[in-house]
Amino acid sequence: MSPLAYAVQNDCFLTFLHYFKADLPKCSRIMGIINGNERFWRLVINHLLEIVPSFSTKASSSKSSDQQESPLTFGRFLSNLAADNKQVGALLSKLALKTNKNGELPVEFFIKAAGSNQVLKNSNSARLSPQAVEKEVAHFLCFLLRLYDRPFLHEHSLLHLAAKYSSAVVVRTLVQELVLLVEAPVDPHGSSPLVLAIVHRNYEAAVELLRLDADPAARFLQHGENISAFLYELKHNSGLTASYEFTATHLLSRVRKFNEKDKEGNNALHLLARRVALPYSTEVATVLVEKINVNSVNARGETPLHIALRENAISPALIAFFGLLLKKEADLYKLDDCSRSPLNYLMKRSGADPQLLRLLQLLDTKDVGLLRHQDVKQASLLFNCAENGNAVCLAYLKAFMDCNKVDIRKYTPLAAAVINGHKGV
């Protein structure tokens, strides 16, 4: 094996660089060795931000004064070399069409590597500021793009790839260099770049796409769904703090249609109600209650209040959400397909959480509907509390509700407490 082949095979950056400088007169032979080695581009990308040693700083006479003032990175060294030596440039253009064992072109591999910070691997990029790193990544991507014909690049969904895996600077560079529309033609699965960024939780790329005027109404069309990027975000990524920050800060202000539903009949408020304790959910809810009917139902007859009181632990966030819906005249007595109201789900909680009292104090104790409310078994709210050992609710409600009202089985609340072993209640 020749020294150059060994250098490429073992990612020996300095040896590789020495050969590039020393053997340029024998360029065709050296490039022939590189041409048969698919590790070449990985070596280049791994050392993209490496500062080139002083022996090779004469890489190009065409550098600008700005480039001369900053350290010369390997990425700029290689692009300068290609610009100064036609043989190098021609060979790199040829190598740019070779795929690796995963079937990726060098530009595709670089886009993915830039998103996974692989370009920082094995480099002393700590000498570069974050702004300088972004500048070097953008510069090298522009260099790679120039190795291809534009029609060829437009046939490959590079912006979709960047939306899934890469950073904001890569997305921005692709749009600017290739004059791409952020609403690029959808991929084979029907997804736009923004949808792909959200599906893959690449919020940095998603924010950049929105800044470039991507449409949040772009559709997600897989797995039997036909929903916007906004609704997908609330439905599938709602367990992530980053998701809610992204939704509240960037996505929500650009949504124009709020009443769309998923295949289960849930609108945005239904989906938000599942995770009201997450950061930024209050900000999102404050906007949604102004846009969506708080008493709208999904395919199971549930309002957002049903879901919120069933799915969330008692917390200040749930109390705030509950109060927000009440101010918009949320129906406390609306029955779902299981013949349960939001209040039934609340009273069926077991235990004695003291925060429940704050939530109960939001109720109007003079409301006739509250006093007469019954479930499908004609059990009152007080009965539900006794049956489930909900001591806090029971202590609050017994002051203005009949403690001896029986259900359809002629059981009193006391009987229900004894039967279910809630002796303290």
Please sum up the structure shown.
By secondary structure, the chain is mostly helical.
Q: How many alpha or pi helices?
A: 26
Percent helix, as a range, is: 40-55%
Question: Residue-averaged pLDDT, rounded?
Answer: 80
What's the N-to-C terminus distance? 84 Å
Structural class: mainly alpha
Shape: elongated
Strand coverage percent: under 5%
Radius of gyration over C-alpha positions, nearest whole angstrom? 31 Å
Low-confidence stretches: 55-68
How many DSSP-defined strands?
A: 2
Biggest β-sheet: count, sense, barrel?
Answer: 2 strands, antiparallel
The spatial strand order of the largest sheet comes to 1-2
Order of helices and strands, N to C?
Answer: HHHHHHHHHHHHHHEEHHHHHHHHHHHH
